Amino acid sequence: MAKRGGDAALATEGMALSRFGVLVSSATELESIAASAPYQPPDPLLCFDLLSQLVSSIEEEPKESIQLWQRKCEDALFSLLTFGARRPVRRLASVAMGRVIEKGDGISIYSRASTLQGFLVDGKKIEPTSCAGAAQCLGELYRLFGRRITAGLVETTNIVSKLMKYSEDYVRQDALLLLENALEGSGGGGAPASYMEAYRIIMRLGLVDKSLIVRLAAARCLKTFGSIGGIGLGMPELESSLGYCVKGLEDQVPSVRDAFADALGALLALSMNPDAQVKMKKGKNQTPVTKKSEDSLQKYLIAPFVKASGVNAKKLRIGLALSCVFFFQVIHLKYHYPHSELQNLALKAMEMLQGSGSIDPHSLACVLYILRVGVADQLTEPAQRDFLVLLGRKLESSDCSPSVRVATLRILSYLLKSLGEVPAEFKDVLDNTVVAALSHFSVHVRIEAALTLRALAEVDPTCVGGLISLGITTLNAVREIVSFDKGNNLSGELATLHGQAAVLAALVAISPKLLLGYPARLPKSVFEVSKEMLNTASRNLVAATAVREAGWLLLSSLVSSMPKEELEDQAFDILLLWAGSFAGNPEQHLRGVQDWTSELRVLSVSMEALTVFIKSFISPKATSTYGGILLQPVLAYLSGALSLISLLSSKRPPNAKSALDLLTTRVLMAYQSISDPLAYKSEHTQIMRVCSGPISEPSGWAESSLLRILLDKRDACLGPWIPGRDSFEDELRAFEGGSDGLLPCVWDDDVGNFPQPESVSKILVNQMLLCFGNIFACQDNHEKIALLKRIDQSLRTGKKQSWYLSFVTNACVGLLSGLKSILSFRTQELSAEILSFIQSILQAILRETVISPAQKRAACEGLGLLGRVANDVFTARMTRSLLGELALAVDSNHSGSIALSLGCIHRSAGGIALSILVPSTVSSISALCKSTDSTLQLWSLHALLLSIEAAGLSYVSQVQATLLLVMEILLLDENGYLDLRQEIGRLINAIVAVLGPELSPGSTFFSRCKSVIEEVSSSKETATLLESVRFTQQLVLFAPQAATVHSHVQNLIPTLSSRQPSLRYLAVSTLHHLIERDPAAMINENIEENLFSMLDEKLILTNLVRSTINRLLYSSCPQCPSRWLAILRNMVLATSSARNDSLASSGTDNINGVSDTDAYYGDEDDMISGSKQGPTSISSNFLKRNKHLRYRTRIFAAECLSCVPTAVGTEPAHFDLSLARNQTGKGHNTSADWLVLKLQELISLSYQISTGQFEGMQPTGVRLLSVIMDQFGNAPDPDFPGHILLEQYQAQLVSAVRSAISTASAPLLLDAGLS
């Protein structure tokens, strides 16, 4: 056969090479390699290059050309796979096999699948790599042609069972991947016996395997099994699977836990939709094996969530939350549950919070994640309105626990911001729900109610005035009642007092940011109210404490939010309000205190207000005239607070430790808000006495949580906080929660996603260590050495103590904070003794074998900062010392730490002093990269990346060697290189940045870089997909000659619909760069609708997407205003009535514009929704749905429309009708597009907007008319000499203006009309 193939090649050589030379040459070389494989093992690198060329050429060739050489290609690929090949080569060969059959003669799928099955069934013991290659290829064929080869599914499951007996874990992994592709590809159309055997393999072999990669593959198989309908499963099997998934959520490996979470969600959805089994059986009238399980949610989601306890409780709750989200997504997108049912299930999911009367912050965070991602983000705009009302009515229920109320109010705020408007139905229930919650006995509920009303005010500014007036009136009335102790229900009245103060503070904070502004008397009125509350005495001490606390709350909001010119004249009066608390003798102040806890709580609130005052009037960003004068009394107050803390610490009042910790935290925060620590140098000794506890007495303090904030985010891949699919999910995973933690601040612009993220004790340790770092930076050398000796002494003596690891973290935080403060404050140069002392401490930490990745990263980064703080001589000497230590290191963990330290030093210090050490550093680290230890490989690759990025152009001479190193690692025998893929991709992107313009598009170097990126991103993990998109971005920024603009756009468009914000951010920012770099080429790409579609479906990244659309508008509108008018017209005139009608009739709406199956069941792990549909599907789907746009998208479209008359530029033909006619009529530029030719459409559209039903859009329509009159006001009418062009549109213009200036018009519309 080979001879006949060779004769055919010779006979057609001339013709073939001229038509498709790359395809033929690649196939011929592969055939030659396969023929010589028994005598000479194939070169992996050569095979990788050839297969990459082959895959690319197949995409470009027509079917007829491929058919000529199809059999030759198939045979060569089959031989290569069955002789054994490395993993990347196996994947490429499998992909090439599938694409050859798919694009060529599809009839060969049957013979090729049979051949692969026959090879794997062979009774002889087959080499592991050969088994893995054949299994991977057969899996690819099932993925592409599964429904055509379902007859072989029984044989395939038997093959998988055989392969699971291999001792090599990668063979077992590939066997399960084959099973997953076979199950998904067959879609339930195979023989029932095959599915039962597949289920047995998954449950009895895959899920109990000791290898994590095998368990991961088995969990994904189980999810696929549920997605195709769980063929053959009875209720016992289904419940067994669900129970095992719940147990799997406690696995030690995060990726395995995530896979079990998805499997649990898919199986839960199946248990509630057993009829799906009938649908998967090609219409046969079998009865479903299972019955609908009504209590599945309760048994496998809610009950385990409520009962979760022990060390794995948080892991289990997070896993159950992710399962619940996936469950909601599946039942909506796959099983087409109506939105009303989705909302009812959301209320059921809130039962997770009914376990106890107290609020558990971690449980609350998980439920908030479920409600937001699983429900709110999936609902269409009309459904969100209904959900808003439903949640409002939920608050009316008397059996609603505080946790449920907090979750409900938080989601109400999110829905209001998402909608951009307040539905009339929600206004009807507002008083009995949100407003009533301001008087709830729980302070958590009152704060969330205030934040909800703040969100309502942002959306509907017209209600702010009434709410503020009502708040002040109610506050005065309640204060009057409690001051004279008239109320029969004092606790209820005090709750109302606090709630009204909180909502008034929230409304005061938001007022200056609203378009309508704020009343001129508001600052003075609120200041007078707060001053009276702080100065008015009361016979009832409990009431007096509550009134003072509310007064400080109001003052904080006022000072934080109002323009400084409004309060500058009253700055000294404001400052006097703290005199009673912190001036004078602290013993005399505390002599009459009866309730220490309440008094300390008020002092903490007052200190928070003082911190706000410092940031507003004294910090460098403040513009206050009296900033320097005001600092001295502020320092006196802070000194008094320190004395108070010292006094209370010695007296130790009963039951006041937590309150005292909170006051101490607030005082330290106030000191840190002062930009220059030398301003309070006289207090350094006393402050250090307060905040050195975690260093001097480590046994009594919690472990700091600041490393997650202080460490460089670019090193996150090293752990322990590895970024996932989006920042919201990452925040949930890292969330610890503290029942006594700080509540959300009602005047803060950045309210956290989850309330109470940390306990007071942990916040106190964090602030102590930050203050320690600040003051350490300002001490003289003698004091610095004394502080370092304390750290060193605790490290030496505490190795066997239970608190040792916590102390290592606290020491790293203190040192990092100190080094960063030294760089920030630019204090005196450190002596060599201090530098050497810090170096020895950090290196001693790195030598420990039990420290965590976060602690290792902190010590490495500390050495990097030390290199930046020190002079060039010390930095070079330290680098050489580390290189010497690296050469002698034996422990792999220690070697990886030293390698990262070297990378951090180059990143932080760099420069000429280290340039001569780059080759030796690269050589040493590159040797470590070849290790068989995957952890050492990961850390070494990252260190190499840091060195490349720091070296810049001086690294050019090392590029070739680095690329060969990358290829060698990629093609190593079965290493666990899934964790290395991201680092390999980042190295390639760094190489592209270094080479830049020298990267030739036709070179082998560029082709190999591109092939490596395609290989690492084939796993479809978020981290590797990020590097794929970043590769496009790097080419745009540094090597624009390497690829065309069109190819870049086609690569980026599918990513715009990804569910991962990080991917969408990279894609949009890259498109923004392309628009700025080559606006002419981007005009013909027609990506406007893609961007608007993304803006409509995704609430985050709004500013970036809007900026990109505006940039594109101003770049392309001068050439094609008609296109923009057509696009914007469709969006601006879109209404919600059509959507409401369709929802009423069908009960569902595909909000993603992609196939339900593609979105979650076709290729779930690729994380790019609809990527299989090609780049045009998003646009076409968007055009089909443009009548269902969200309100906020229509408003933005109207704003874009108002920019069109100015975006067209200054070309006279755009505004002169006669000139425009001459340009188009006399053949000057027949393709030219002039705005004046569309003036009638533009005016008609602006009139419809200004007089339409949406109040939020009407001012934009009036402003557009104003712009039209400015631009075309003097344009003559060529058809009626002596008249202007706008006269024929006089009726529309006058009517619009008359409507705008009517006394019944809304304020914003009236302002636009009068202008």
From TrEMBL:
SUPFAM superfamilies: ARM repeat
GO annotation (BP), single: carbohydrate metabolic process
Cross-referenced InterPro entries: ARM-like, ARM-type_fold, Laa1/Sip1/HEATR5-like_HEAT, SWEETIE
Listed Pfam families: Laa1_Sip1_HTR5
Superkingdom: Eukaryota
Protein family according to the UniProt entry: Belongs to the HEATR5 family.
Protein name as annotated: HEAT repeat-containing protein
Organism listed in the record: Rhynchospora pubera
